[in-house]
Fold:
Amino acid sequence: MSKLVIHNIGLLLSGKMEKPILDADCIIAVDGKIAVIGKAADMDLSGAETVVDAKGVTLAPGLIDSHIHPVIGDYTPRQQQLSWIDSTLNGGVTTMISAGEVHLPGRPKDIVGLKALAIASQRWYENFRPSGVKVHAGAPVIEQGLEEHDFKEMADAGVKLLGEVGLGTVKDGPTAKKMVDWARKYGMQSTIHTGGPSIPGSGLIDADVVLEAGTDVIGHINGGHSALPDDQIVCLCESCQAGLEIVHNGNERAALLTLNTARELKQLDRVILGTDGPAGSGVQPLGILRMIAMLSSLGNVPAEIAFCFGTGNTARQRELDVGLIEQGYCADFVLMDQAQHAPGKTILESVQLGNLPGVGMTIIDGKVTSRRSRNTPPAGDVPVIEGE
Ligand SMILES: [Zn+2]
Structure:
């Protein structure tokens, strides 16, 4: 049995919209899962393999990037970059979800080839976690000619996601709907490219196609990068119950329109965050933190709620065992403090003023995976591992 104790937590963010701040200062994790959340004075802290003194900083669930395009290991051919996932871990992200391995040079588009790629991608990220980060990959991009049995075959082989609908040859509503329904029937989650073409070779997907396809998530509703016209974005928010995914590689004005529309609908729990990295705009190691600060400050959302967009909301939408501070969930955390010399009386106020917090530590499955971030502005206080 391996036991982790994190005590002296100054502020505990839960990832839950309905109760974003917990009245607790200590977490015990056993064998990588959250076991007890409470006040240290009432808890049995003995027998721990690792004791982290949080030094009064803020603990949140590890951030989730709902939209990435990985290819293999910690390398992306898109911007010829190594260690981009490790760099993102330094931005507090502990889980990433593929929206398709589309940047693979020579990506197979024939049916047997795309199935093979999906299965292989799912496997190599299941077998290898870059710097400990959980990458959910193996997200086939649907092409004309796929049949129902192909979805069953992929699902039986462990494929749980569809890549962005619209990046392949299926760009019409009826065909997309048919295939999304097959995917859902076999337990695969789906997302769709929304907006204008990303790069030469990709195409326009408008609100009519998005609504007809009926995917679980409206991928980058704020465009990647070109957003749909305002009336179409509002229509998407109003006309379905799919996840409203806002990405860093998108249009910030459209992001705020989505946020404000969701708030008017009293459906902020649908808002989830991604980067779309690596993309034409590059790798975005701080992308999720930047989205949280941007939406909190310009969108006038309490920071503790904005953190839910990048943690619990995504976890619930994606049915993950991370992203929430709750017994039985994975012990995946980010420990942060107000950045040195950033304005604001508290970390939450500082984020609401548009500043990034400083990351001091990440933990995945109860194991420390990074210390003071090399990418964020420096945190005021940084947790320590006792006995070091
Ligand atoms: Zn896209």
